[in-house]
Amino acid sequence: MQLKKLTLQAFGPFKDKVVIDFENEKIDKGLLLISGDTGAGKTTLFDAICFALYGQTSGETRTANSLRSDWASPEDDTFVDLEFYYKDKMYEIKRSPEFFRKKKNRDGETKQLPTAEFEINGRVITKVNEATKEIENLIGLDYKQFRQVAMLSQGEFTKFLLASSEEKTTIFRKIFGTDLYDRLQNRLKLDRLKIEDELKSVKEKIDTERANLEPIINLYGLNLDETINVLDNKIKEDTEIVANTKLERDKKNEEKTKLTNELKNLSDTNQKIEDYNNSKEKLDKLISENESIEQEREKYNYNITIARYISDVLKEWEKDNKSLEEKKEKHKQSKKELEEKETIFKSREEQYSNLKNYSHNVDKLNNEISGLNDKIKEYDNYLNKKSALEKVEKEYQINSKEYEKQNIFYENMRKEYYLNISVEIAETLEEGSPCPVCGSTLHPNKALAHDCDYTKEDLEKAEKELKQVDSKRKSNEASIEEIRNTIKELEIPKDIDVNDEKKKLNELLSQKKEEKEKLDKEFNELSKEKEELNSIINSLKDNLKIFDDDIVTLENSINEANQSLEKLYRENRTSHDEYLCKKLEKDTLVELKEKIEDFDKKKQELETKIKLLEDEVKDKQIIDISVKKKEFDTVDEEYKNIDEKYTNLNAILEKVKSSTKNIKEFIGENKQKEKKYTVIKLLSDTANGNLNGRQKITFENYVQSYYMNTVLVEANKRLEKMTDGRYELKKKELDIKHNIKSGLDFSIYDSYTGKERDVSTLSGGEKFKASLALALGLSDSISNNRGGIRINSLFIDEGFGSLDSESLNQALNILLDLSGNDKLVGVISHVSELMTIIDNKILVNKSSVGSVVKIESNN
Within a 10 A sphere around the Cβ of 850, how many other Cβ atoms? Predict the structure, then answer.
């Protein structure tokens, strides 16, 4: 990762927008010193980079929800925008933390939620957590891993140096892609657990089948192995016994079936005889209970044929008669209403004729109203001109006074100015020399000097202002003359009160308008009423015509209905009286229909049944079947006993056969799985570091230890220079009896003592050297071993203060060598020597309204 540009606003101690363009300022490679006042915000720049990438700061003491500047204005947003290169491709990510800002138009604060914006692979990601995951996938490091290998924050230099094996395992897994070995370990472990479960399942099955065979074992007094060996012969013997029992059961079943059929035939015959006799009795009873059924049938048929037709014609006749009466009544009412409306219409016609002078009266009123409006406008114009004249006359008086005042001031200034010129000329006069003004050679009374500060420019300015006031005064005079001429042209007598006359005219105008409105209203209402009456009269006439037509139609229809009724009575040899006597209501007719249908149905069913049974029961009598029933019960009991015996014997046989087969298969399956389990367990224990008597190191740790050795080789190149060959980092070897999984722990070899010891025993300055060497070695190892993760930037926050002068020079020489090609090493420090050694600087200083940033570059 290579930095291009960092932009932050209202972030930490920075109130305004801060832009650090690493690329354009040519500070994106080499050593870069970040220095300045204590507490000014040097570490905040590291925080900004880390926050932009992961949404968290570079140190554990600062949280993402406390990043807004205390100097920030309510309208300013807090954000960080980072542009960087990764694998020669430029990316940009922008984030805002959670913060509170003052409400714009109200008291109190409002909460702003965190945001993110990151474009990658043609899509823009705006979800905070999703953006962080994409950064982790892109760079190959999560937040904690990035801090440990690329950003050594203040007070945290030794974290990677002192990290546990498990912590280093996670870091190396991301950096060197050893997760496939971890997956292999887990797969082998899962396979081992799976086979263990399968073995347990098989053993449970064996125990189940052993329980099934327990009665057999107890019966013969054998153990499980002996039972399995003799069970095949036992199964053969029991199979023959079961087969013989089945033959005996089948024979008894045939005897039972024969008796069953005989009993059924006897019972069926007896039942048919009973059914035949019962059906005859029911038929006789049905006929005797319905002696009047034929008369009712005749009445029903009359109603559904003749009476129905007569009823339909009568309904239409009654309907038409009712409609005829209604139409006649409506015709009578409409005729009466027509006569009333015609009388009213004639009355309105007379009133309308009385308004024949309406147009003349309206025109006269319109002319009078127009004349009054013109006169009022004339008076309004007169009053407006009088008001305008008074206004201009006041302005004229003001401008005239101002002119007099300005003129006096100007004349005094002019006299003073020219007097001052005279003094200047007098000072140049000599006796005997002619005066340039009067030509006299004698100068008995020269102009004396006096105080005067007026210049020619002052005089010209005063003259200009005087002319401006004079121009306004003359303009007022012209306006006054023009307005007076206009008033004179209006020819308004001077002895009248215009306002009083205007008031009288307005009152007269209102009166004339009211007369016109009243006349218009009366005329319009009368015209409207006349039109409505005319429309109603026409509608009533149309209705009368319709009623006349409807009455003729209904009378014709009634006559036709009377003729149809006479024809029906004649053709069906009936009369109206007979119709009224035999006619049934609908509900009664339905009940009668149901009664007739029920009788016909029952009668037919009984007759059909009697006919079918008649031949079958002819010359037959009911037989007693109790003796045959006892014989059947005896045979049935014997069959049940034999069937129960067969079922029990067969169930035991099948259970023994199934259990014997299963237990043989499960024992074989158990042997195969135990063999496979032995191999898988050995592989799993080896890969996961669980072998007894061996060092507790996993397969992944074993592979990572190779990469760790390459890191240590590169790290020791720097550490040897920084410690003059005294110290060397080594991988700690543990005793095989140690019960903790390890393999990635460090120790330090001290050439002065010739012994190894734990890295925690180093002093503060020594730990810083070891941590710096380790971080640089890790960066080199990443670049040498794989192109997947590229960390081209290292940031170091403080730590140099713990070094003596010689160690400081050694560390800087190493950093200069490291950054010479394409790496950026950023250092935060207060050490004064660094200001003269490192050329590229970012200076951060305090002010009363937040910190400011200054960039110095010699590239």
Answer: 19
